[in-house]
Each structure stands twice: as C-alpha cells, then as structure tokens.
Amino acid sequence: MALLNISGLHLEVDGRKLLSGIELSLRAGEVLGLVGESGSGKSMTAISVLGLLPPGAQRSGTIDLAGRDLLKRSERELCAIRGSEIGMVFQEPMTALNPLLRIDEQVAEVVRTHRRVSRREALTLAHATLERVGLPASRVGHDRYPHTLSGGQRQRVAIAMAIVLKPKLLIADEPTTALDVSTQARILELLRELVRENACGLLLVSHDLGVIAEIADEVAVMERGRIVEHGTVAQVLRHPQHPYTQALLANSRPQPVPAPSAAGTGAPLLEVDRVVCEYPAHERTLFRPPPAVRAVDGVSLRIDPGERVGLVGESGCGKSTLLRAILGLETLRGGTIRVAGEGYAGGDTASLQKIRRQIQIVFQDPHGSLNPRWRVADVVGEPFHLWRGAGAPAADERRRRIASVLERVGLSAADGERFPHEFSGGQRQRIAIARALVCEPRLLVLDEAVSALDVSIRAQILELLGTLSRELGLAYLFVSHDIQVVRAVTDRLYVMQRGRVVESGHSAEVLAHPRHDYTASLVAASPDLDLALARRFPQSAKIPVAVAS
C-alpha cells in the first residue's frame, strides 16, 4: 500500500492553472524524485501536500497520506500533521531557521508543539537528534546560533527539525543546491540513512538529475504543471521517452565551450603572488589579542588575457576571501595582487576604481544582487560611477552602452524600462552579466553564477559566457562547486583547501587524474549522472545521449 497517493490533483491560483491532473504515489522506505525546470510545478506539488498554499488557491483531487485525504482536513488538523507526520526540509536553511534561537531550542520547539513534554525532555530529544544528523556537541555546540554555522551544518539542523518526531513522510525541496560537493554528498547519504532507518518515504524535489540518479528509486518529470514521464530511475534516465526529459538529460551534461583564440597569450592579466589574508578569531582573551585565523595562506595564481580559470573547494576553504582580496575588498596581510602589471591594495580608492573597471563580478543569486526598486537600465548602468571626472561617458553614451550590452546578452533595449522582478531567473542572470560588462572589463569573476539555475537555463548561460569570451576576449575566474561545469568551461583549474592551493593544472587533466587526495575526494563526491547510473545499474546498457526533438 502506498504511503502517499496523489490522484487527479488540479490547482488554480487567481485563475491561473498551476497543476493539471497530477498522479503520484510513494511507498514507505522509498525515494521519489520530482524533477523539472523552475515554474514546472515541483515545489507547488510539494507544498500542496502540506496545505501551505497561497490565499485564493483552488484544489481538486485527492492527496492520501496513509489512508487520510489531506484535502479534506481542516487547518487545525493539518497543523497537527505538519512536523509530526510530515517533515519538510527547505532549500535555504538560513531563511528557514530562526536567527534568534539556539539550534537545540529550534529542534525542541518542534517537539513541544506536538507533544506534551517538559522543556528538559524536549531538549534531550533535540540533542539526540542533532547527534544523529552529524552535529555532535563535542564538535558543534548545541547552544550555537544559525549564523555561526556553515551552510552544510545549517542544513543538518533543518533536517533535524524535520525528523525529530520520526515523520512518515519527508519532503526535501532542493536540499543540496547551494552546498559544495562534499557537503552535498554527506547530506544525500544522511537522507538515504534516514529513509532506511525510519522506514519513511522521501519526496525529493530537485533540478539536478545527478542527485536524483544517486538517491532516488523512482522519478517523475514535470513540465508546465503536468507529469510528462514517470518510472524507475533506470527506465526514465536511461531510456527517456518524452522530448522534455530528453532535453533535460542533454542539458545535464555541460558541453565543452571552445576556447577563444587569444587565450593564454601575452603578459598575464591577473597575478596573485603569495597572498595572505587573516581575520581575528572569535575566541576572547583577557590579556592578549585574539589569535588570527589565516583564511588565505600564501596563495598564488595567474590568469592570462582571454583565459578561463576555475577555482574549486569546499565551503570555508578561503575561496570567498580570495575573491574579496582580488576585488580590493579585503586588506592583504602579505603578498601582492597585480592587474595588467599594476599592483593595488585595499583602501587605495583611486587605484581601486581604475582596477574595478577591468574586473567585474557576477554573483550566485541574481535576485538578491539586483536592486528591486531600480529599473533594469539603472541596474546595468550602476558601474558607471567608477568613471569620475575626466573620461566619464556622457549621458547619451551611457544610454547607448546600456542598450548595446542588453542586446549582447540576449535581451532588448526596451527591457531597460522594466524591473528585475518581471524577469525569469535566467533573464535576471543575463541582466547581472550585462551590468558586469557595461564598463568593458577584461576579467569577469563568476561566483557560483549558475549553481542555482535549472539545467536548461544553465546551458543557455554557459553558452552565452562562451560566446562573450570568444567575441570580446574576456577572461573568466569561474568559482563553482559543480565539477562537471568546471570541467566543461575552464582551461585551467586551482583547487583550494584550508586557505592553500593544493593542486593546479589543466582542468581536464586535474579532474581526470587528480594527484592530491583532496582533489580526488571532490571528484568522487560530485554527483555525476552517468557514473551514478552505471554504479547503481551496472547490468543496464550505457545511456544514449538524448537530444530533444
């Protein structure tokens, strides 16, 4: 008998049909992967099970959980079910956790909401659950606050809140999207163990087919509010029948981007020579200054004009601190940074303004990096403040450049009059790229610029970056935890661990034959669609490379 059975589910919000005839079933002890692009209805299907729909939503059909139709339950009855019988793990734990409560208090709060126990008993159960998800008190104090934890640790706290009462059904909505590969592998292994030990069902919502291939038993593919394909992982991912599934599979394997002809020629564009960055530790001392934590420890790297260089490593390895130093936002404790032969350091405003015309950054989350109150033309034209005094473009020239750069990234000049919220995620990332290009830099720093995008949108953005590199001779510093993307789009690669570069070389060579154990562990932990299927289903034929018709 199925633990969860969704039959004929239709959903409309404000007259707009979001779900049409959804049919899904999930048995205890199994993992069902729900995949599709943004807007396909994945998350809406998941929150329909919880009854957390926006006002004005109209539903029909049945959502049966262990013999009870959740659509016929009152809000009071659903509140009793949420947390006790259905656990939810959200994509971004920092927004799902209360910043004012200690982590053990947040887990204990779930217990006291559903059970009549004392605060001490709830905390005892909370501590045991935190230990179970890999957060022992000896290593991670249970009295800490969310902001003091890493991304992977915060996700484990969110999982602890979801499983503390051993629910029958666990729903995880993109639980590993923003995590580095090692942390992602540990979270997936934890979810597998919980399903096996608790005999619960897991509904895993993800756009990453590599993740689905690693953990799921069955997979359902959604497009525009409908299930277009459903079956076992081996059936759907090895022999896709629907053109949409075929397109998702094709886009899940990033295609190598041809290098520009100017790559690797001439004097270096960026030289980082034995750079050291430190910050004070959190420990307080009475008679001496707090010890310094060395986030970047003697790192050296080089990027030539037109070259595409990757930088990978786990959270906390020093990548972000190094990026801030390159952008002039971090004070160096040692070493030098030169752009086109000219050195600079944090605090020198005149030299920084000149350097920042040559180096621009594209952030991971375009929604968070674009001012929602500004029109797109104002957002794209923001870097013009780097030209002060003589040589600054006139107003007409600025408008011309903004229109030109919007068209270059695949938008139109008329889009400059719209606001960021009127665009899709992929279009917002194009706006962010346009903003980075408007001052005609020579180097783009891409900080996890495609990690939060659907596979098809990611393919479009990577193709755009390849085109810009060839046409403009741009150099890229590509920071990513996605090994498959780094392999496809970079020429050379640097691997960072604990503030140091432990391995570097040509990307394909480093990732195919890693010399350092840490690099090998990153490659092994990276979800790979083909390798996961070959490992789990060795008797099946090799996956045909499917192309959408």
UniProtKB/TrEMBL annotation:
PANTHER family hit by this protein: D,D-DIPEPTIDE TRANSPORT ATP-BINDING PROTEIN DDPF-RELATED (PTHR43776:SF7), TRANSPORT ATP-BINDING PROTEIN (PTHR43776)
Pfam families from the UniProt entry: ABC_tran (PF00005), oligo_HPY (PF08352)
Species name: Rhodocyclus tenuis (Rhodospirillum tenue)
Family the UniProt entry places it in: Belongs to the ABC transporter superfamily.
This protein's UniProt keywords: ATP-binding, Cell membrane, Membrane, Nucleotide-binding, Transport
Name this protein carries in UniProt: Dipeptide ABC transporter ATP-binding protein
Gene Ontology MF terms: ATP binding; ATP hydrolysis activity
Entry-linked NCBIfam families: PRK10419.1 (NF007739), PRK11308.1 (NF008453)
One of the GO biological process terms: transmembrane transport
Record-linked InterPro entries: AAA+_ATPase (IPR003593), ABC_transp_ATP-bind (IPR050319), ABC_transporter-like_ATP-bd (IPR003439), ABC_transporter-like_CS (IPR017871), Oligopep_ABC_C (IPR013563), P-loop_NTPase (IPR027417)
Residue ranges constituting the ABC transporter domain according to the UniProt record: 4-249, 281-523
